[in-house]
Design a protein that fits this description.
The chain is mainly alpha-helical and 278 residues long. The chain contains 13 helices and three strands; from the N terminus they run H-H-H-H-H-H-H-E-E-E-H-H-H-H-H-H.
Length: 278
């Protein structure tokens, strides 16, 4: 085992056993760190310098990854470096020279039910189910990736969400029927999306992200990102009259303040609302 592989294993063990991070968080960290190692060809963290770090950042930007996502990736790698520095390791990376990328103005997107129906016309059954489940439950892409057949009890889906919190959601009758067909057609027994893999393991979140992005792009919706489906879930509940407290519970949030950041269904409609209610 290479030195860097031992270092990553040690750090992820710390994240799991000491920090008690969720499986989805650890899986995402592992994916980002492994991609960083692959691109940088780094064999030991003690040789990480700013030139190597900046080359990796430039590579991600050339791939078309958003500034927001690259900043997230950078934070994950830097957190690992800080961990080892706290243990006494000397890493020649100057943190003062690492600057956050300008993300520009954050514009949140959301999709209506009509938009979703349009998109799934460009999707195969598996991609359609992924889209429907995320739109109907507010599930995060990492949670979607690890879904098993055993997570479903009829229309109910039970899963472990962010912060190791047990969550419960419900899919529509239409989605449930399509899911039953999908499971039967491919004789799926464990991971929903792993039937095409030799070991039955699910694909990476990045693979699923690209799959969804392709369907949305072919339907004419550019700039898709998976979390927009979670925003869409919250916004459509709001439009249909659900209270913030109800939406908070359905999304599995700890605080209303977090939920309120998802509610943007009335952007650009203030005049209409004032006319309606004054």
């Amino acid at each position: 085992m290479k030195k860097i592989e031992k270092q990553v294993k040690s750090y992820l063990y710390y994240c799991e056993r000491v920090r008690r991070m969720s499986e989805t968080t650890i899986n995402f960290k592992e994916y980002v760190i492994n991609e960083f190692i692959r691109v940088s060809r780094l064999g030991d963290l003690r040789r990480l310098n700013n030139k190597t770090f900046d080359k990796w950042v430039s590579y991600e930007m050339r791939k078309g990854v958003s500034a927001r996502s690259v900043n997230t990736y950078k934070a994950i790698v830097l957190a690992m470096v800080r961990y080892f520095e706290d243990t006494g390791m000397k890493v020649p990376l100057n943190f003062k020279l690492v600057q956050s990328l300008n993300e520009g103005e954050l514009t949140r997107k959301f999709y209506t039910k009509e938009d979703i129906e349009k998109v799934i016309r460009y999707a195969d059954l598996m991609t359609e189910l992924m889209i429907r489940i995320m739109f109907e439950t507010g599930m995060r892409i990492a949670e979607l990736t690890r879904l098993r057949v055993s997570n479903f009890e009829g229309r109910k889906v039970k899963f472990i969400g962010k912060g190791r919190k047990a969550r419960e959601a419900y899919i529509s009758e239409e989605t449930h029927n399509a899911l039953e067909i999908f499971i039967g057609n491919y004789n799926i027994r464990d991971y929903l999306w792993g039937f095409q893999a030799m070991n039955g393991e699910p694909p990476t979140t990045n693979t699923i992200r690209n799959r969804l992005k392709t369907a949305f792009g072919e339907a004419g919706f550019e700039g898709f990102y998976p979390h927009a489906l979670r925003h869409s879930f919250a916004t459509n509940l709001q439009i249909k009259g659900a209270s913030v407290v109800e939406i908070k519970e359905m999304m599995g949030h700890e605080s209303i303040a977090t939920t309120e950041r998802y509610l943007h269904g009335f952007d650009g409609r203030l005049e209409e609302l004032f006319e309606k209610y004054r």
